[in-house]
Amino acid sequence: MTIVFFSNVLNHHQVALCDELYRQNGGDFYFIETGRLNASRRSMGFRRFERPYAISLADNGNGRAVELAKTADVAIMGAESYPYLKLRMEAGYGVTFSYSERWLKQGIKNILSPNLLKQIRLYLLKGRKRKWYMLAASGYLANDLARIGIFKDRIFKWGYFPGYPEAKPNERNTDRPVRILWAARFIDWKRPDIMIKLAEMLQANNYDFEMTMIGDGDMAKSINSLISSSPETSPRIKLKGNIPNEEVLSEMSRSDIYCFTSTRREGWGAVLGEAMATGCCPVASSDAGATPFLVDDGRNGLVFRTDDINDLYDKVAYLIDNPDARIKMGEAAKATMLNDWCASTAAREFLSLSKKALAGTLEKHSDSNLPASPAYRIKLMR
Questions:
Q1: Contact 252, 170 (CB under 8 A)
Q2: Phi-psi region of 57 (alpha: psi -120 to 50; beta: other; left: phi over 0)
Q3: Strands 209-214 and 178-183, how do they pair?
Q4: Per-residue DSSP letters for 226-265?
Q5: Cα(75)–Cα(290) distance, rounded to whole angstroms?
Q6: Which of these, 114, 82, 80, 110, lies nearest to 96 by C-alpha position?
Q7: Which is it for strands 54-56 and 257-260: parallel, antiparallel or unpaired?
Q8: Chain centroid offset of residue 150 CA
């Protein structure tokens, strides 16, 4: 079974999964780099990975890419892959999976996107007659596609599967202030401002805590101003700016609670999985893409209603008040990421899914909480 993965560049979000697909499929796996790593991505810490299965169009031309698009048994279509997706639909061979975050991050107005319109048209003209499926790198992609009326019963749970460092022994204890962490770009839909309000509410109710916020962006100055305007709370909040990923992971490893506060515009949110993998107990926004797949409310973390600061406060306060529950959920979060939502499991489950799709036996593919299991519409928390 030959598998080919088309995407713009092999990077840290994909390489661990690709390594596993290459290994578990006996080397019959190829990654086609359709673009180059630009300066903006490099500044954010992205880098290229050299692998025996990687083929760069910039270095090798598109001859091999065209051949694989038409003849590979299984194709995964990621970023900047539409020309090869179209070739594959026209050839009508094999099984195809599109790898996508949610389509309607900003609501139905996203339907006017030229990229989405091209895919919808291709699906209606050719794709619905082919074995073309969706890998949903968002818990809400199934909701979006149901609104459009396409890919019914053709959507499977997916995400991003970076390699996680070897788990460290749990060094968290209750003999110090509870450490609360937030890490993201300082932009409106990541909502760093809600963390300052949370800190003020915790302070007003005499909770003993420390809050660390990592990142930078357009809202950095306004966040500094908010902190300065609250002299009682400001000593408890530390801003660290942009720091290397290794240091971010270190902060996660020593923190007790990770707050993931993004709105629906967060297609996935790899940082949530990174925090969970260290055993840091998550309090996650219900509307963010990764939350429905990764966080089982009350078992391996807590979910709060995205637009409800009081709900966020209640969940964080509960974890401060109940350290045993917090530690237990943190350990369950770590097990989720290291055992279930990891590259080796995703590759194994994807290979099983692909074989059934090729054989026409997908009706035997059972539901589970693992990657590559069927994805259904999710009821929003309100």
A1: no
A2: alpha
A3: parallel
A4: HHHT-TTTGGGEEEEES--HHHHHHHHHH-SEEEE---TT
A5: 24
A6: 82
A7: unpaired
A8: 23
H/E run at residue 348? helix 343-359
Residue 48 confidence class, pLDDT cut points 50, 70, 90: confident
What's the rounded Cα separation, in Å, for the pair 296 and 279? Answer: 15
At 284, which helix (H) or strand (E)? strand 281-285
CA–CA separation, 99 vs 5, rounded Å? 10
Structure tokens at 168: 């460290």
Sequential DSSP letters for 3-54 = EEEEES---TTTHHHHHHHHHHTTT-EEEEE-S---HHHHHTT------TTE
Residue reference for tokens 């709900």: 311
Classify 285 as helix, strand or coil. strand
- Partners of residue 76 on adjacent β-strands: 5, 97
Give the C-alpha separation, 203 to 196, whole Å: 11
CB atoms within 10 A of CB 363: 7
Hey, what are 53's tokens?
A: 């299965």
Q: Following DSSP, what letter does each residue of 85-144 receive, concatenated?
A: HHHHHHHT-SEEEEEE--S-TT-GGGGG-HHHHHHHHHHHHTGGGSEEEEEESSTTHHHH
The model's confidence at residue 23, banded by pLDDT at 50, 70 and 90, is very high
Segment 74-125, tens digit of pLDDT = 999 999 999 999 999 999 999 999 999 999 999 888 988 999 999 999 999 9
CA angle 99, 23, 53 (to 5 degrees): 65
The CA distance from 371 to 353, in Å, is 10
Number of other residues whose CB lies within 10 A of the CB of residue 227 = 22
CB 150 within 8 A of CB 124: yes
Question: Which phi and psi (to 5°) does residue 259 adopt?
Answer: -100, 120
Can you give the pLDDT at residue 366? Answer: 76
Residues contacting 197, CB < 8 A, separation 6+: 309
The answer to whether the beta carbons of residues 34 and 8 sit under 8 Å apart is yes
Band (pLDDT 50/70/90 cuts) for residue 271 is very high
For residue 58, count other CB atoms closer than 10 A to its CB.
11
pLDDT score of 193 more than 80: yes
Note the pTM of the prediction, 2 decimals.
0.94
Q: pLDDT band for position 38 (50/70/90)?
A: confident
Find out whether 234 and 259 touch, Cβ atoms under 8 Å: no
